[in-house]
Amino acid sequence: MTPKHLLSTLSLLALSACAGETIGSKVDEGGFGNTTMNNFLVQTGQISPVQMLGERFAREVPSTITFAFNSAQLTPEARATLDTQANFIRQFPEVRFRVYGHTDLVGSDAYNRRLGQRRAEAVVAYFATRGISRARLEALVSYGETQPVIQTPGPEEQNRRTVTEVSGFMQRHPTVLDGNYAAIIYREYITSAEPTPTVTSGSGGGGEGEGAAAPPAP
Question: What structural domains and CATH numbers belong to the chain?
Answer without folding.
Answer: 37-185 (3.30.1330.60)
